[in-house]
């Protein structure tokens, strides 16, 4: 569960930053 949330969060932040 933690890994999934962390992965999605990282992708979201990365996409937001560009």
UniProtKB/TrEMBL annotation:
Q: Name the chain's protein.
A: Short wavelength sensitive type 1 opsin
Species of the source = Harpactes erythrocephalus (Red-headed trogon)
Task: Provide the gene name from the record.
Answer: sws1
């Amino acid at each position: 569960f933690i890994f999934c949330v962390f992965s999605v969060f990282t992708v979201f932040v990365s996409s937001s930053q560009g």
